[in-house]
Amino acid sequence: MKGIADMNILCNMCGKNIPVENNIPREDFIEINKAWGYFSKKDGKTWKFTVCEECVDRLAGQMKIPHEVCDTIELV
Questions:
Q1: Share of the chain above pLDDT 90, in %
Q2: Strand stretches in the chain, DSSP E
Q3: Is 56 in a helix, a strand, or coil?
Q4: Are strands 9-10 and 29-35 parallel, antiparallel or unpaired?
Q5: How far is it, in rounded angstroms, from Cα 26 to Cα 46?
Q6: 30 near 56, Cβ under 8 Å?
Q7: Please, which residues bridge with residue 21 across strands?
Q8: How far apart are CA 48 and CA 52, in angstroms?
Q9: Rg of the chain on CA atoms, in Å
Q10: DSSP character for 58?
């Protein structure tokens, strides 16, 4: 299994390279891993992709129903 240091983390939307130093990503991003089910046209397929913080902000700005924002009490 590859460690983060061996990985090239790229945003699937814009192609941005997420810098990694000492096995730690230096910018935040989300990873989506969706196994599609019976009622989908993608049944039996799993999609995996990474989206950088800037692209997440752009996606959120396009949503008709705003996303919920909650304060995180304990930061990890």
A1: 80
A2: 9-10, 17-18, 20-21, 24-25, 29-35, 46-52
A3: helix
A4: unpaired
A5: 27
A6: yes
A7: 24
A8: 14
A9: 15
A10: H
The total of other beta-carbon atoms located within 10 Å of residue 58's CB is 13
pTM given for the model: 0.78
Q: Please, which pLDDT band fits residue 13 given cuts at 50, 70 and 90?
A: very high
Quick one: tokens of 40?
Answer: 């989908």
Q: What is the pLDDT of residues 45-59, one digit of tens each?
A: 999 999 999 999 999
∠36-40-42 over CA atoms, to 5°? 60
Cβ atoms of 46 and 33 within 8 Å: the answer is yes
Give dist(CA 34, CA 42) in Å, integer.
Answer: 10
Nearest to 67 by CA among 25, 37, 35, 30: 30
